[in-house]
Each structure stands twice: as structure tokens, then as C-alpha cells.
Amino acid sequence: MIGGLFIYNHKGEVLISRVYRDDIGRNAVDAFRVNVIHARQQVRSPVTNIARTSFFHVKRSNIWLAAVTKQNVNAAMVFEFLYKMCDVMTAYFGKISEENIKNNFVLIYELLDEILDFGYPQNSETGALKTFITQQGIKGQTKEEQSQITSQVTGQIGWRREGIKYRRNELFLDVLESVNLLMSPQGQVLSAHVSGRVVMKSYLSGMPECKFGMNDKIVIDKQGKGGASDDAGKSGKQSIAIDDCTFHQCVRLSKFDSERSISFIPPDGEYELMRYRTTKDIILPFRVIPLVREVGRTKLEVKVVIKSNFKPSLLAQKIEVRIPTPLNTSGVQVICMKGKAKYKASENAIVWKIKRMAGMKESQISAEIELLPTNDKKKWARPPISMNFEVPFSPSVSKGPHLEGLGFKFNVGAHKTPL
Amino acid sequence: DTWISTQKKIHSQLSLPVYPLQENRQFGSKMTDSKYFTTTKKGEIFELKAELNSDKKEKKKEAVKKVIASMTVGKDVSALFPDVVNCMQTDNLELKKLVYLYLMNYAKSQPDMAIMAVNTFVKDCEDPNPLIRALAVRTMGCIRVDKITEYLCEPLRKCLKDEDPYVRKTAAVCVAKLHDINAQLVEDQGFLDTLKDLISDSNPMVVANAVAALSEIAESHPNSNLLDLNPQTINKLLTALNECTEWGQIFILDCLANYTPRDDRESQSICERVTPRLSHANSAVVLSAVKVLMKFMEMLPKDLDYYGTLLKKLAPPLVTLLSAEPELQYVALRNINLIVQRRPEILKHEMKVFFVKYNDPIYVKLEKLDIMIRLASQANIAQVLAELKEYATEVDVDFVRKAVRAIGRCAIKVEQSAERCVSTLLDLIQTKVNYVVQEAIVVIKDIFRKYPNKYESVIATLCENLDSLDEPEARAAMIWIVGEYAERIDNADELLESFLEGFHDESTQVQLQLLTAIVKLFLKKPTETQELVQQVLSLATQDSDNPDLRDRGYIYWRLLSTDPVAAKEVVLAEKPLISEETDLIEPTLLEELICHIGTLASVYHKPPSAFVEGSRGVQHKRLPGSAGSGESVESPDPGAAATETPPAVIPSQGDLLGDLLNLDLTPTTTTGPPPPTTSGMQMGAMDLLSGGLDSLVGLLHQGPPSLSASPSTTTLGGDIGGNPAMGAAFGAAPATMPASFNAPGSGGLDDLFDLGGGVGMPMGALNPPKAVWLPAMKAKGLEISGVFVRRAGVIQMEMTLTNKAMSVMTDFAIQFNRNSFGLAPAGPLQILTPLSPNQSIEPLNNLQVAVKNNIDVFYFSCQYPISMLFVEDGKMERQVFLATWKDIPNDNESQFQIKDCHLNSDAASNKLQSSNIFTIAKRTVEGQDMLYQSMKLTNGIWVLAELRVQAGNPNYTVSSVALAVRSLLCCVLLLTSCISVYFEDQHFVLIHNQSCLNSPTFILGRWKYLMVIQVYRKH
Q1: What average pLDDT score do residues B640-664 get?
Q2: Is residue A87 less than 8 Å (CB to CB) from chain B?
Q3: H helices within B87-182, ranges in order?
């Protein structure tokens, strides 16, 4: 299991060091700093083995989190735990930064004591943790309160405490989709898939039993290729085939497996209920057509056309197109017919914002990019253009603890094409 | 109080409707907490001491915080121990936790003072608040002080039966902690049984933690059957699985994976209950579920509908893992790499999801590339090639190189695509990007080896780029091509001559290749190249210090000078084609890794024993056998693996000569605990560490540094240091390549030795696995394992020195203590202080060794099998035997039985002969075969034995006598008999019956009998 957990700043100074196992010594702290943070060549794996000690690391902005072990641990679990640790810290004190960590180091030690015991992850749901890791002491509580805390921390519904009351019961649901598209230079679509996330914000009283039904349009293709989706195709309905989906731990998986219904008692506040992935019949909401011309060695001409490819009655909002520019850009002149465009030197990109755009329309931007002459032989990697937008839709979600229908097609998404 | 007012103000600004109580004090204390990290002035400890003893509570707390901050950044604040412990008795929980944190860090260095804390712990374990009870028991388990553990037992016993589940789940983990400190205590106190009871607890989290604790304890007791998994407990676990936290689910699934179902029906029902986990948001839960399913699937009959369904169900979740965070993607991809090797059908349609994305981190890109090649088939090769061609123009050098290599592998794997691959590679060569060209040439050489006489037209293009090659591998590849096709390249001699100019600056790889290529050229075009070949032979043999090169040179020289026809047959022999799959993992290793899906082993693609110290992880896990319908499930050797005809693994890089030299880079799993191979990018740092060792020992191997010292006796001198090199040299001629070389999983180093020894050594002599002689813990990080073998008449002590410390070790030297047979290292050594004299109870074949390096001198002792000492001329004349047998007094005779040996007398005699135990005569009396045997020890002592074999009775009787021929000179006399017998099923037993005399002044007649039976499993 995890033998120790260290947090470093970008310089490699230790901010937090918590050792859980006897086989991890203080020298492990330095070994990671020397071999990974200060390594001459960038480390090319998130798992590093230094003298029979394995280090797992993740980086958040310029903070390094490293878990150390000498045993054959479950590697996937260690990374999941590190992400969870980040989530918990964010939930307690916001952004993970050196300053925040230093300011809250006592709290972090308290958390680490609670959520990792002898290197075994324990309940790490912030909802439960916040009931008793408060930095305020727990002396004042009555016996009932105490046992309520412990039963929640160890209970079957560790993510929700009892006795939550709201005057208005509200439930918000966001479907966030990102379309990943891989296109050959000739414009042929090589692969496309949509990965979607259903994010909920629930403000409900008591212990609400929620049921999330999927409408008939959704076919979950759990049986691999062919099979179910073919049947749906034959029946003439326009179906949305989902390749796979995963659920938050509050969802009863065995019930989903047998009855295809998503039933759960939700955590309070915001959480990600499910993720899904689909590869079939992806209709791209937008097409982005870039044209790049190199004029000599110091100038680039870029023209980008976007075409909305959905029903004219729908309206896309808050469209943001991000066009990357080379690192040696000295100046940019932009002309766009619609919206506003600006070159952001700090981000190495031209950001083009359009408030709204109806379906079946098109718009374009052209830019002249001036480049500084460089000796750098390494060529510019031409990162892809990315795009974000929202399509609001009136949700078919009723108030209260019973939900029905999920008619999602595309909502918020990112659209990527190689330049 | 201004501090409180700021806090209130901030609270009113924040609107956290749900938890008004946890008003972020951290914001309030902004100006206080981070400052603890900055104080570095002198006299700090003194100041802190004063503050810790302050009367004001706040000041105390601030001081403790400062102490913890100093501790975090690595300052030694252990001097404050008593002062900090004094703060422990407080009702402020935050302060208490800080003091506990301090205690956990420093208690070990101040055990006497740590005892001061015990009272508070014991009191806290009785606290009405369950959180405090749990905190106390949790912290107490982390204090590794013997005296404290004694006090821990009673509170722990209570807490294990606490009414509150939170306390119970903490206590369950505490048992594992205590076991780590004092295993015996845990057993004596009966905690293991209590822990087992917790598996039936009503609270799922208690169950999960109990399972985790038991699994950990069971790992250090491989045969204890501690977990005692049976259908009832499995049922309990599966029920808890649905209810516990994500982490608990992982513990339970990992534990389930160790269970072997009784039959396919049970296997199926477990699978059915585990499959819903595949939809969990936590990737670790998904991977652990995949592990259980992959393992239990082995037991399902393939014609079962459910088997097919299960296969289909596995693909989507595996693909979904690729949308996780990059680090998890990496773990998932390393595992998918194993899964596609074991069950390629699962993901065969999913090629596209492994296409590299622009913003993938490099480690994800490289892994995806690997899987793309594994999934490449005739159906998708066009797409794959198009992708690979794109990748070859990317920016990252490593990635580009791998992509180019991948194109070559596609050509070898999918024959139909070979032509397109070659033309793609030629296009890439035209780009003139240096590293692309070099990589392309290396793979084209492999393509030539797979499809000889097909694509030679491209040689001209390759030759154009000769000058730009600056990497040894590419140069060696090019030279190989020129040598191999010398008859078709008009100016082959010029080309090779141009390399010869800087011969001594080339790397060994290139030098060897050049030598071979020029010899090939000479054999093909003898008239024009005589001068050239002489030049290279003299360069290799006279001016080189490299034994490999020298030996290869001599062999060619002798071959050419004695029999040019034979030389032609040897050097220009037809080479075997290289196999399709290049870097497949050896099947038994793959099976083991499948059992470790999701863990570090699956990330490193190495068995846990290669990177885990001590007893943990040494157990080798196996997949259960495919049951069909009622075959024996528990059979140790699963049939499933054997029936699927795994392709033979031949490393394709380099030609066979190169292979031979590089062989020890391939992971070995054949004998005993495999040496930690240090290839692979994750192990890079380790590689660096062992590098120091390596160069000192002066061997050529890049793998684990292995030292081959050859202790020889007075009668049998001879240095064997050059033996590995000899082995390589013998192998150099392709014709002598033994067939066993192609066997999957052939151990690199062993093979090398086998080759070398194959000339003079009867095959089948005993070859026990290496044993650890000196554990790293006892030698500041230096681990020595080794074995004694007798090869070609010389006793060899093969040692593997492994550096497990964090620093480089240098200045190695070895010395043996005086011993019964006068063994001494033949290599150079340094005089060291003699060790304490032999103790009388030790067996005679005990050897005390001292190894020295820059850190320290380490002593260890090891036993060499007595059969090492039998010399080849141990066959006594019949007449002499008879006379001697009668002469020896009865006192000198000893008898014993060998049990359970199913060989007949002839077979036994043959086996024994391979260990230099010779049969002099045989007679049959009343259905019993009597074998009369003789052997001679290195110090001239003869041992005679009579072996009685009764047909049908597996027990042999041996009586043996010894005779001291040179007793005047020997101050030690002994009677030893040793018979090694092979069982038919390849296990063998080595039995010594030896008596030893502990002091030179003793005379014949006072014997101590000692029976040592060693059973090795022959791999």
C-alpha cells in the first residue's frame, strides 16, 4: 500500500510529508526531488522507480503530489487517490497552490490522517469529511451527533449526511460533451467520439431516492458491436447508441446492470453523476475550416471559417474559438466579420468570441501573424484549434426526486480539428 | 480580539449554505500559518522549547505548528520530544492530532520517552467519543516502539469489538500495523481470529478494511491459508462489494482475485456479480474487476454463451479508461498491453481508439503506439500505416523513432503490407532527418531477415546514407546488410574498409559486426579481400582489449586457417527467420502479470519479486486452469496456456550474433527469483545505480551486474573469468546455435553459460537456482545471491550482486575464509582479516565469504553442494575398488535411504554419472540391483558407495565408505557421501550424509552425523 505521501512546490521544496510505512525513509523525499523534479530530462512516465522505491506523481499547476511505495500496490488506485486528494483539498480551500497549501498545512495533515490509514484509502467524500474535519474541534458535539458522524463516515451512504433541509428543493443538470475528432490532412474523419458528462447540482432535503430514466432513444451497446443497436436501427427509431457509461459511486450498479435504471441517493451539492461515450452517428455541430499560408519566414496568414451544422431553430451561445499561434509571434492583426477577436500573447492564441449563432450559418476570421526570426530548428507543432459553445435546451427534468427522460444530443462541447 | 472579528467578517462573506460550521478558518489564519515555513533563525529550538512550555494555550498550539512545519521541511526537531509530548493531554483535538503526528515521526528515535504517551493513549481509547477512540488506536499502531505495542494489545482488543463501526474499521487496519511490527504478538494474542470474524461484520467498510488487513498479513505468510476463502466468505464479500466505498470495493476485488473457484459454475456466478463494477467511475475499481474477470474467465468453457458475452462486456470499459486522466490512461494502457496479448479478441475492433491524440502526454503516446502494433492485422493495416507515417513526422524524437520502428514491425507482422512498409520507410529516409534515417535502417535490416532476397533493391538507397549514420545500432545494422549481401554490392570492400579506419573508436557492437561482415565478405569474394580480412583479424585479436572481440577474432582466424570450407558452412549458414511477434511477453510471465492487473507489476511488466523486497510478492500467482467440465482445477500447471500455442519469442534486433550478446537484457523468469532486469524506461534510475557496479566488475553485460568468480582448488586451477565471453564466441558461428535457443523464456545469462559449457559438459548436470546468500538489509543495500556449479571440470561460484542502495558501490573484492576443501577465488582478491573459525556444528561444505566494497566489508556464508567437488577422474579401477572396499574398517561405513525415487538402476547410474559419480560394477542379487560407485573429491579423498535398488521399491539404500588417500597432508579427514538423483518429473533431491571432524587434532572415529536434504524444484 501507499508508504508515504509528499507534496512539493515547483522548486522541489517539501510542503507536506506524511510517511505511513516503516519501509519509507526520509531519503525518499530527496530521491524524488533529485530524480524527478530536478531531473535533467523531463521524466517520461508518471510512475518512476528509484532504487526499488516506486513514486507515483501528479502535477497540479506547479505543485507536485507524489505517493511512494515499496510494495506491489494497486497503481490505478494510487492515482485515483491522488486525484481524490486534489478534489478534497480544492473543496476545502480552493485552488491548489503553494500559498494555500502552506496556509492549510495543519488541515492537510489532519485530512491525510483521516483518508489514508496505513496507506489504505478510507472514506474520502468531502460531504462526509466536512462534518468532522473542521479545524474547530469536535468536543462540543452531543453523543447523538458523534454517532451520526461515524455512521455516515462508515455507512452505506457515505456521501450524504442526514437531516439536510432546503426550503426549495432544486436539482440542476448539465450535460457536458466534448467531441473528439481526428481528421487526416486530407479532411477525412479518422475517428470521432463524444465523451459526455452529466453533472448535477442537487439541493434536496432528506434522503431523496432518485431515479434517472433513459428514454427509448438511448441504447446502451454493452454487448459490443452490432447486437442491440442493430435492432434499434431496424425498428426505425432514431436511436442514440451509447458505447459505455460509468457512474458516480452513489449509483446502484447492480440495479443498472439488471434493470437499466439509474437509481441513487444523490450527494448534496455538485457532483458528476455519469460519464458516457459514444462513437456512432456523430453529427458535428460545427465545421471548422482552417487555411494557413506561410508568407516568407516571418509571416503567417491564417483564415478560419466556421459553419454551424444544426437546425436553424437552435441557437448556439458563448462561442469561443481558440486559434493557436507560434511561440515566436511578434504581432497579430485580426479581421472578423462577427464577434470579437483578440490575440492573447500569454496564451499564444487568438481568441475569437461570438455571442450567438444560429444553425446553418457561417462566419470567418482572418489574421496576419508576424513572426520573429528564430534560430530554433524545432518546428512548430501546430496544435489544434479548439472551440467551446453552449446550446441551452429546456430540460425535460421535473422538479423533485423523480427524474425522467434524458434527451441529450449536444449541449456544451469542444470541437477540435488539427490545423 | 481582532482575530475573531476578522474571522466573523470572512464568514459573512462566504456563503456556504450547507456547512455553516466549517467556516474556513484557513482563510482567517492566512497571515499566520505559512510563516512557519520561513523561520530559519538560529536558536530556534531554544525559543520553541520556551513557547511549548508556555502557559497560554494558543501559544502552545502555535509552537507545535512551528515544530510540525520544521519537521516537514526535514529539520531535526527531535530534541523537543518531551516538551511536545507534554502538550498531548489537551482537550483541543487539533492540537492533539498535531502532537500525535510528531509522536509518529520521532517515537522510534526516543523510545524511552515515547512511553510517556502511553497513558494518554490508553485513556483516549476509553473516550466516549468514537472519533477520539479511533484516533488513539490509529495513532498507537503507528508508533513502532516495542514497549508501546505491549500496551496496545488490550485497547486494540476492545476496539475490535467496539460498538461503533468507525472504531472497528480503524482497529482492523491497526491489526495489520501491529503485525508489521510484531507478527508473533498478533498471532499469540489471537487478533487474527478476531480479524477473520470482522469479515462477517454488518458494516461494509469494516469488512473492506478487515479484508485489506488480512490480505496484507496473508502475503507475508504464503502458506497460512489465513484468508480461508470459501464459497460462504466469497458470498459475504460479494454482498459487501455492493455497499462499500470505492476504495473498499478495490480491496475486496483484489482479494477476490486470489480465490480459485471450485468449478465453472461458481466461476460464472462470481463473474456475473462482478461485472456491474465495470461501470464504476473509479478506474481502479474497473481494473480490479477486469482482473477478476480475466482470471475467472480461464475456467469457463469456451463454448459457453456466457463466455462470449463476457468477452464483449470487457471491451467498452477498457476503452472508456482512455478518457480518464493521463496518468490513469498510462496505467490502463500498460494493462491493455497485457490483455491484448492474452486475449487479442477483446479489443481487435477497437484499433481507432488507440490513435494518438495531439495533446496526449508522451508516455501515453508511446504506449498507444505499442498497442496499435499489437492490434495490427491485415484488416486494419492500411489505417495503421497511414497513422504511423504521420507520427514519423512529429516533433518528439523518441516518439518518432518508435513510430519508425513500428512501421518495421508491421512489415514483419503482416506480410501483405511488407512492400508498402518498405516504400514508406524509403520515403522517410528521403526526409534526411538524421534519427529517422538511422531508425529506418535498423528496421529494414529486420525486414531483410524476415523476407530474404526480396527487397534488396533498396540497398543502394541505404548506402547513400552511410555517412550520416552516427549511432552504433544503425552503423551495426548497415554493416550487417553490407556483409550479408556482399556479393551483390560491387564496392562492398570499399564500404567496409571505410569503417575500418576508425575501428578502435567504434562501439563493441559495431566492431563485432564489422569483424563478422568482413569475414563474410572474404568467404564470398576471397580473391580481392585477403588483405582486408587480415587487417580486421589483427585489429580484433592483437590491438583490442575486449575479450569478446578477441575471442571471436581468434575463432574466425582458426576456422579460416584450418578449413575454409567448414568456415563457409559456419559463417554463411542459413539463418532462421525472425519471428512475427517481436516483443511478446514470455507466456508464464504474462500469466502472472494478468493476475496482477492494475498493480505496479502490470505497469512495469515485471513480476513483483523483481521490485519488491523481502517476503512480500515473492509468491508467483498463476491463472487457474481452464476447467472444461470437471478436469482438475487445482493442477499447478494450467493447460490453457500450453494449448494456445504462443509464438516463439526471438528478439529481432540485431542478428543472432548481436542477440547473443544482448540476451541478458531480456527478462528471465526461468530460474528461481529472476534477477531484476533493468531495461525499460521506468527502471532508468536503477540502471544508473547499477551502472557503477557494472563497470567495476568489468563485465560486458548491461543487465544485472553479475560477477563470475571461479574458486578453484589446488588440484583444479584455472581461471574462468573469460567464460561468458567464450560462450558468446562459440555462439558466434551461426551453425553452432543450439535449438534450445529459440525456446521461449530462455534465461539470458544461463543460456550464455550453457552455450559456453555445452562443449565440455554433459547436459543434465544439476543446475540449481540461485539463492540469496546475503540479503540487502544486512549489507547496506548490497544483495548477493548465487549458486555453485561445476562446468567443464571447474567449480564456479556464480554470483549476482545487486545494488539496492541509493548510492554507487565501488572497490569490490572477495575473499573466502579457510574451508574444508581449500576453495579460493581464482580472480584477483584482497587480503582481509580472517573470519572467526569454523564452528563445529556447521556442515563441511559451508563457505564463509567476505565481500568488500567502498562502503564496508560484508560477511556471509553459503553452502555449496558437495557434488561440486567431485572430479572427473573419479572412476576407480575395478580391482582397486574391490580391494579398497574390503580394506576399509566398518566404522567408516554409513548407511541411509533415499525415498521415493522412481528411476531404475540404469537411469540412476546415468544420472549420477553426469555429476561425476561413476558406477564401477553392478550385480543383481535376489531382485536387487547393487551398484558400486566411486567418486573422488578435489582434495584427493575417495568415496565409495554401494547403491541398492529394488525393482518396484522406490526407496534406495546407500552405504558408503571413504578412504583418505592423502591423509598425511590433509588436516581434515572426512567421510562424505552424496548422491544426487533425479526424479523422473524433473524434480531432484540432493542428499548428503556427512560427518565432520571439527578440529585437526581429532582422529578417525569421532564422527558427527549430519543429514542435509535439499529439494530443489527444477524449472
Answers
A1: 36
A2: no
A3: 93-106, 111-114, 118-124, 130-141, 146-160, 165-181
